[in-house]
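HUMAN:
Sorry, I am quite new to this. Are you able to go through these amino acid letters and fold codes? The numbers rather puzzle me.
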Amino acid sequence: MNMMNKGENVNKASEFKKTFDKGDILIVDIDAYSPKKELIEPFCTKDHELVLGKNNFLQNFDNKFLHNEIEPSYKFQLKIPKNHPNEKYRNQKLFFEVTLKNYEELTKQKALDTSEGENKSQEEINDDPLAKAQERILSLFVENEKLIKQNELLKILLEKEKEGPKAVVIPNELKKEVEQYALQKFFEEFVNYYSLYKVTSLSSEMQAELLDDPKLKAFSKGYRMITWQFDEMFKKYNFVELKPIEGEIFDPKYQKVNEQVIDDEFPSNTIINVHSSAYKLHDRILHVALVDTSVRSDDPQAKVLIEKLGDNAYHKTPGRLHTLREKVAETIAKNNSK
């Protein structure tokens, strides 16, 4: 065989294929599972050499690869033969997961070796320096073919990886925001009930103080303890109460007007009565505060109030702020007068 013919044979042998053929050697990791997904160790092995067509692992096992496309891994079901040495698993259907680690085309290597052997006997090769050189060149071609196969396999594995799902990279700022507001929906619903509880507990505490009633004081003390526990827990999540103060100017960022009255004793938009506090989670307002505000008679809004409410548009106690203490005292006085 001349060098040109040898080169042509090697080129043919090195042409990359997409499927397995009989005689190919596969190096694989094999894991076997029961229908309940339990690992079956007797059929698990690492770096196992499969010579396709010999069925040296299990009967019909090689058929799962023959003439099939080369993939990084395979999953299939196979029935264990009824004459298998392991009696426990005879006739059972097991699930196999096979990871391809490497392979080579044994049949083509044999063809190259056979072709060379037909032209030169071993004795001739030993005696002929040119034959030795040709043998060495051919062996290098075979080694090169192995490297080409390994390289092509790596290319396939790389392409399969590219086809797989992409990892989602979340920016740190977005990740932080998601973590901060993960409980927002809960707090939005919770605060509606907690706000009412807070107003009731503060009113009870003020009533106990004004009446100097030991039983009410003990009762309000329990309220105060529960409220303190809530507030301590809220600190962990940066859930904050924003308390409007009577006499301060209305802030639309976290307050909502419940009622407006005309009162020239205060600047327009002065808070004269607080119904409830506002609550925020980090920087988000989840619950606005409810307040009553004043309007001066020379304010355009005063005309609107008079047209709508008449005499009821005016503050019944001009210059007076309706603090919690005052409101509780009025309630006590009304109850005593009955």
Observations:
- Residues 1-16, 106-121 have pLDDT under 50 and may be disordered.
- The domain at 183-337 is CATH 2.30.22.10 (Nucleotide Exchange Factor Grpe; Chain A, domain 2).
- The longest strand covers residues 93-104.
